[in-house]
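2024-03-11 09:14:02 INFO receiving multi-entity request
2024-03-11 09:14:02 INFO entity count = two
2024-03-11 09:14:03 INFO echoing inputs for audit
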Amino acid sequence: MPAEFEPHDGCYLVWPERTDTWRLGAKPAQEAFAAVATAISTSDPTTVLASSRQWEHARALLPPEIRVVEMTSDDAWARDTGPTFVVDSTRSERRGVDWVFNAWGGLEGGLFFPWANDDLVAAKVCELSGSRRYRAPLVLEGGSIHVDGEGTCLTTAECLLNRNRNPAQSKDEIEGHLRSYLGVDRVIWLPLGVPFDETDGHVDNLACYLAPGRVMLTWCEDPANPLREVSYEARRVLEASVDAQGRSLEVVLVPAPSIPSMTAEEAAGIDRTLGAKPRTGGDPLAASYINFYIGNAAVVFPLIDPRHDDLVQELLARELPGRRPVGVPAREILLGGGGIHCITQQVPAVGV
Amino acid sequence: MPAEFEPHDGCYLVWPERTDTWRLGAKPAQEAFAAVATAISTSDPTTVLASSRQWEHARALLPPEIRVVEMTSDDAWARDTGPTFVVDSTRSERRGVDWVFNAWGGLEGGLFFPWANDDLVAAKVCELSGSRRYRAPLVLEGGSIHVDGEGTCLTTAECLLNRNRNPAQSKDEIEGHLRSYLGVDRVIWLPLGVPFDETDGHVDNLACYLAPGRVMLTWCEDPANPLREVSYEARRVLEASVDAQGRSLEVVLVPAPSIPSMTAEEAAGIDRTLGAKPRTGGDPLAASYINFYIGNAAVVFPLIDPRHDDLVQELLARELPGRRPVGVPAREILLGGGGIHCITQQVPAVGV
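2024-03-11 09:21:47 INFO inference complete, emitting structure
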């Protein structure tokens, strides 16, 4: 699996629609997703997947350079339902890993039921892009892994070892699948993800690779914030780790925003259904600046807190030179339970 | 618009599903469509478009070299709902003409209601294939036109001038649209299509181009068959016509099968719904050997009548040398109201 900072042939997103995830008939979320897709399309060829019901509306809202392809899904998290694309050693062919998807925990804490359409998204994207496909015998979402493209995978035990994912498999077996399907030699296990993250601690809200040997970590020093312990512990593990190439890791800290929460008015705009987790005013939102997308020419990052947004933009410009940082208001995506990275899936380049 | 016998980059089909068109839950039709798609896939890169409900089943039934892409439709006639692909004079770019679709006659004799999904198929196929699109201000189905690729279009007045298509447009205006959108200089108007054809006489069941200047015509000498007058009159018009290049046309005759009809048992397997035309045992079927698909390396033609099938195969082998004639049992497609040509849409090659 190439790292996200390596060249891309494209990017996929899924159009948000379900009214028990997205408030006000998903209209504010659609505007936010359109802004993210538009920003990415200035950098990577972009495809948005929209249901039959929403295809015309998505086509109307998105700029013409974005391809809009019909696809049924249960929700709009391309990172977690799309294929994880891998390449061969000569980068001449791309294939898709199609992980088993259970809506972040199945019947034990999963976020909605049923999830059969989402579990088909990876296979359908592979068909679309003419990629051969591996169906992996592992419940996994793309947001729970990050790789450096040189043999190292970063993940969290909270998610991958959660009993609502692969209870019958040992840590060694799970790590074995990561090695086989991602082509990595070393897995670095961080203990916990960001507090209140409904994904059971996806790594893509906590830490990510900026370059081989260089990891960015969300950082909190506020003793009243439960993230403090998590980020301290993650830093300790990262600084004690050696990657697949034998390197120690440099850790770059990015400030965590103070924990935002859903307002009662926002919660009131979300449909209550039997199939989805209910939302209430005051629910904390797992906001993190780490949840950005690294494109060929742009880094699309979430605008969360005016006190930090500019500093984050400067940090990304410094850390990812040659890429234009583009901030996009992310609150409507946060309200649905994720961030910009969660709604994207890069297609690594082949034949370069 | 390049002729069908020119090189293709691919072919699209739509997976049959609606149970008020296709008997027995569409299972026999799906088998027939799969056989057609499989035959074409040996010749042209083939994509089958299937609804969310049928995607998995279509994927399971079709060979892996066929791409299966999700798309919602109202029925399965890619010729009539797909885009008509055109190319520029240097064959460097391909664009799609997206005709207005009204289910072969709208509320005045159309075959089902509603048809909004079918009217979106052309736009969605253009997106998929990355083709720019012209929305033409004309109700037209692809089966009502054939071109020689050198400036001539063949059509029938019965269909194109039918008041259930474009009642507010004169013949000159309609011909003007054909000239503009297909890039043709001459339109040859045949008066009537094959009797009992529910499309109001699509030319693709009556006559087609084998090469510039060379037209194949379904031919009937049985005075008891209403096709006799139609085919005689079509021959008279064709032989009196001059094409865009100033050539007279050579007419190659292919025998018409005797008119088959739907059995009562077959009709009983079709759902009765408010939205679709009811079917009855004894309904005549508009069978024609003309309704074949010319691929790069194969001609896929309908097996209709064992008394003629072999002769047709020999005729096609002689007339379209270098292409393997492949006969596919067509009765299940005929029961739905069309033939092999009706369920296909070629993608002319560019950059060759």
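2024-03-11 09:21:48 INFO post-check: Chain B touches chain A at residues 52, 55-56, 59, 67-72, 117, 120, 123-124, 127-128, 130 (CB under 8 Å).
2024-03-11 09:21:48 INFO post-check: Residues 8-348 of chain B form a domain with the L-arginine/glycine Amidinotransferase; Chain A fold (CATH 3.75.10.10).
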